């Protein structure tokens, strides 16, 4: 996958793409023919003239630069800030060259090893690294798929096994205890979608819904890390069938259920701190001939997107960030599996809450009492709670352990979650630094006030 790709491989791929784009942007004069158009006697010939020309310079030079230089300088700014800087610098350097063209900029012999090198391509590689590849590498290294506290809390209520659907003639409501999580006015639903929306609303706490929600956060993150400017849109050419396969489900039941949950997500308006709206916008492509689904587009709502998540976090507007990790080790009957997904999200929230302790001591405290409270909150019976605990701190045949117990009631994440662990520790470091800075500022203000007295 992209996130495991080495930086040098990423740079190579971007460099080859850039060379192709640069080559395609060079428009040769009509009097010039590529060497591969005809068999040439001189194998080193790159281009040939196929008509007599008295003033050849006018065909190859413009404003003191060759058409090759102009194409190169015009292409560099497309890469970003560093590309713009190098384009401006290069244009000045080449114009100052006496002949209007510095051939050593494109090809020169290295005095050290007598090898031919191209400063132009080195500059291109440098700009690609600074403007594109380094950003991708840093994003994939520093961040993980996550949601903010302001989003995680209502989402947990939405996915909670204890959430209830209240239905009347005018609207559908999803309520967790006394808190309204989402609602929709029934008259606004197209008649042919009403059944699917209603059925999907009752399945929002299922394993199908948990995996779908994580996919809707993780896939835009993957696209963002890969440099996709349109990370909001998830295109599935295979429709719901492809979606089911990517989520690890098989069979018609899964395909139907996922379609119903998508319909519910697209129609319910969810209210969160500082933001409200639909989780997704859904677009289906239907064949006019077969009337079958030919594609599906899930346009993810802003609250689930990585740029909203991290930008809001950096501005201090959304609380802490909570990583969304891979599926939890499953224990017990199938009817409790969705509850384990909810429990895992609450455990990750505990790691985020205690991220300062995690960064300083390498672990957090989850007391027996807190564990039991989280299990009860997520509908896991006491008879299963200990089994879940024992499985989650031990490797299994199906999955490695989720938690690693350092000592009694003190935990860190398992080895498979090393990246999420580093992310949480870094969050703890930032919180600690901000706290210390706040204390120093407070002390300074007090001293300043005392001096005035």
What coarse outline follows from CA principal-axis ratios? globular
Q: What is the averaged pLDDT score?
A: 84
**Strands, total number:** 19
Strand arrangement, major sheet: 8-9-10-12-13
Percent helix, as a range, is 40-55%
Using only C-alpha atoms, the radius of gyration works out to: 29 Å
Number of domains: 3
Distance between the termini: 64 Å
**Which regions contain 5 or more consecutive residues with pLDDT less than 50?**
none
Question: How much strand?
Answer: 15-25%
Secondary structure category: alpha+beta
* Major sheet description: 5 strands, antiparallel
Report the total helices.
Answer: 16
Structural write-up:
The protein has 453 residues and is of the alpha+beta class. The protein has helices at residues 7-25, 57-60, 67-75, 81-95, 119-142, 149-159, 191-201, 207-225, 239-246, 252-267, 306-314, 337-353, 355-361, 368-377, 382-392, 418-452; strands at 32-34, 47-49, 61-62, 65-66, 108-109, 116-117, 146-148, 164-167, 171-176, 179-185, 233-236, 269-272, 275-277, 280-286, 293-300, 321-323, 364-365, 403-407, 410-413. Strand 8 (164-167) and strand 9 (171-176) form a beta hairpin. The termini are far apart.
SSE layout and pairings?
Elements: H1 7-25, E1 32-34, E2 47-49, H2 57-60, E3 61-62, E4 65-66, H3 67-75, H4 81-95, E5 108-109, E6 116-117, H5 119-142, E7 146-148, H6 149-159, E8 164-167, E9 171-176, E10 179-185, H7 191-201, H8 207-225, E11 233-236, H9 239-246, H10 252-267, E12 269-272, E13 275-277, E14 280-286, E15 293-300, H11 306-314, E16 321-323, H12 337-353, H13 355-361, E17 364-365, H14 368-377, H15 382-392, E18 403-407, E19 410-413, H16 418-452
Antiparallel strand pairs: 1-2, 3-4, 5-6, 7-16, 8-9, 9-10, 10-12, 11-15, 12-13, 14-15, 17-19, 18-19
Helix pairs in contact: 1-5, 3-4, 4-5, 6-12, 7-10, 9-10, 13-16
């Amino acid at each position: 996958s992209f996130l495991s790709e080495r930086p040098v491989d990423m740079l190579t791929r971007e460099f080859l793409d850039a060379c192709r784009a640069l080559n395609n942007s060079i428009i040769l004069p009509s009097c010039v023919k590529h060497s591969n158009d005809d068999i040439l006697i001189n194998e080193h010939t790159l281009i040939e003239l196929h008509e007599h020309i008295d003033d050849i310079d006018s065909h190859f030079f413009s404003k003191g630069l060759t058409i090759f230089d102009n194409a190169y300088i015009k292409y560099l700014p497309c890469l970003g800030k560093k590309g713009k800087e190098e384009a401006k610098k290069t244009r000045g350097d080449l114009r100052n060259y006496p002949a209007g063209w510095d051939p050593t900029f494109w090809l020169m012999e290295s005095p050290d090893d007598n090898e031919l090198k191209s400063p132009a391509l080195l500059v291109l590689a440098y700009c690609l690294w600074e403007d594109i590849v380094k950003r991708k590498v840093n994003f994939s290294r520093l961040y993980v798929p996550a949601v903010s506290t302001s989003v995680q809390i209502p989402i947990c209520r939405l996915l909670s096994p204890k959430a209830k659907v209240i239905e009347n003639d005018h609207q559908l409501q999803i309520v967790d205890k006394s808190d309204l999580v989402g609602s929709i006015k029934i008259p606004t639903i197209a008649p042919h979608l009403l059944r699917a929306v209603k059925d999907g609303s009752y399945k929002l706490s299922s394993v199908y819904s948990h995996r779908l929600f994580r996919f809707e956060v993780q896939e835009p993150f993957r696209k963002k890390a890969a440099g996709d400017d349109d990370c909001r849109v998830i295109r599935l050419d295979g429709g719901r069938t492809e979606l089911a396969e990517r989520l690890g489900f098989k069979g018609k039941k899964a395909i139907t259920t996922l379609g119903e949950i998508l319909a519910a997500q697209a129609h319910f308006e969810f209210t969160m701190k500082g933001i409200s709206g639909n989780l997704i916008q859904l677009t289906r492509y239907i064949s006019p001939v077969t009337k079958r689904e030919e594609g599906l587009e899930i346009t993810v709502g802003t609250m689930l997107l990585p740029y909203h998540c991290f930008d809001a976090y950096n501005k201090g507007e959304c609380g802490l960030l909570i990583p969304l990790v891979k599926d939890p080790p499953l224990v017990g009957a199938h009817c409790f599996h969705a509850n384990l997904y909810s429990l895992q999200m609450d455990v990750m929230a505990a790691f985020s809450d205690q991220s300062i302790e995690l960064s300083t001591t390498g672990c957090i405290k989850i007391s027996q009492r807190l564990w039991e409270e989280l299990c009860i909150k997520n509908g896991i019976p006491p008879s299963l709670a200990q089994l879940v605990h024992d499985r989650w701190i031990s490797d299994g045949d199906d999955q490695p352990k989720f938690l690693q117990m350092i000592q009694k009631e003190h935990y860190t994440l398992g080895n498979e979650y090393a990246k999420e662990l580093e992310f949480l520790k870094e969050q703890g470091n930032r919180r600690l630094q901000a706290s210390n800075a706040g204390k120093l500022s407070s002390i300074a203000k007090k001293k300043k006030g005392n001096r005035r007295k």
